[in-house]
Amino acid sequence: MPTIDSWARRLAVVATLAIPAGARADAPPSPVAAGAPSPLAFTEAAFVAAAVARAPEATAAQASRAAAVAAIDVARRRPEPRLAWEHDDLLTDGRLDRVTVEVPVDLSPRRAALVRAAAHEVAAQDAEAARAERRVALAAAEAYLTAAAARQRRLALEAARAPVADLAAQIAAQAAAGAASGYDADRVALELAVVDADLAQAQGDEVVAEVALGAWVGAARATASDPLTLPAAPPPVAIAADLEAAPAARAAARRALADGERRPWARLELIAGALYERSADARAAGFTVGVSAPLPIFGAGRAAAAQARAAAVAEEAGGRVLRATAERAAHRAHAATVAAIDAALAHRAGPAALAGRLVASVEVAYREGDRGLLELLDALRATRSAAVRDLELIHAARAAHLTLIAAQAGLP
Length: 412
Known about the structure:
Layout lengths: L3 H14 L13 H5 L4 E3 L1 H11 L1 H21 L5 E9 L3 E13 L3 H67 L5 H36 L4 E3 L20 H17 L7 E11 L3 E10 L7 H68 L5 H36 L4
Parallel strand pairs: 1-4
Antiparallel strand pairs: 2-3, 3-5, 5-6
C-alpha cells in the first residue's frame, strides 16, 4: 500500500510534468520567449497616441471630412452657360438655323441654403471624427491595461516564487544530508511546481497581451511599462459637452435645406444671352433675356421643406436619446467604479496586510523551530494569493474607470 510520502512524490512528479518546459527552473527557456524579439516598451500616454495616429479610423475620418468639404464647393457651383442650336425645315419658307448662348443667373436662396447645409455637414463630420478618435483611444487604453495587468501578475508570481524556490533548495539539501524527511522535500517541490505552473500561465498571458499590444503600433510585440495603480476616486458624472454635436449639426443642415426650399422663388433664374438666326434669305443677331422659375402648382418645394424639417426633428431627437443613454450608463459606471476602488482598498487594508504580517511572523517562528514546514508553506501561499488578488482588484477598478470614461463620452 502506498505511503503518504510516496503519494507526495507522485504528485510532485505529475505536477512537474504538467508544467511547460520553459517554466521549470531545471529546463531550458521557452522557445517562444527565446525566439521572440524584445518587445517595445511604451508608457500608456505614448502608446495611446501612437495607436490613435496609426489607426485606420483616423484616415477614414479625414476622407469623410474631405468629402464633406468638397460638397461645399459643389453647393457653391453656379449654373453653367448653355449653348443651343436649333434647325428647322419650314415647308413654305425653307430652312431656319438658330444658335443661342444663355448665361443663367441664380437668384434663388436655394444655393446659399445648400452651402450652409454642406458647412453644417462638415461640422458633423468633425464631431464624428472626434468620437472615432476617442473610441480608438479607449480601445487602445483597454489593450494597454490588459498588458499591464499581465505583466504585473507575472512579476508578482516571480517575486512569490523566490522564497519558495529558496526553501525548496534548502529542504532538498537537508534531505540529502539526512536532516529532513523525503516528504518535506517533495512537499516543497510540489509547492514550487504549483507556483511554476501559475507563473507559466502568467508568462503565456503576458506574451499574448504583448502581441496584441504590438498589433496596435505595427510591432511584433509591445510591453506596458507603466505600473498597475489604483485610479483615484472619480468626480461626479459629467457627460461630454459635444455629445450631441453631430446630431445638432445635421439638424441645422436639414433646417437650412428647409429654409431654401420653402419659398416660392426657391429656383428662380435670370437668363441672359445672345442669339443668331439664319434663314434662306436673311440673317439676324440679337440678345435674349428672360426669367425662369417652376410654377408651385403641386407643392414640391413645400413637401421638400417639410421633409427636411422632419429630418431635423429626428436628428435632434436622436441627440437627446444619445445623451439620455449616456447619462444612464455613466451613473451606473460611476457607481461600479467607486465600488471597485472601495473593494481594492478594503482588500489592501485587510487580507493583503494580514497576509504580509502572517508570513513575516511565520518565517521567524519557522527559523526558531516554533512552526512547521506546512505552516510556512501555507503562509507563503496566502501571501501569494493576496498579492495576485490585489492585482485583480486593481485591474477591475481600472477597467471600470475606462468604462466610466466611455459612458460619459456616449461610446458603447
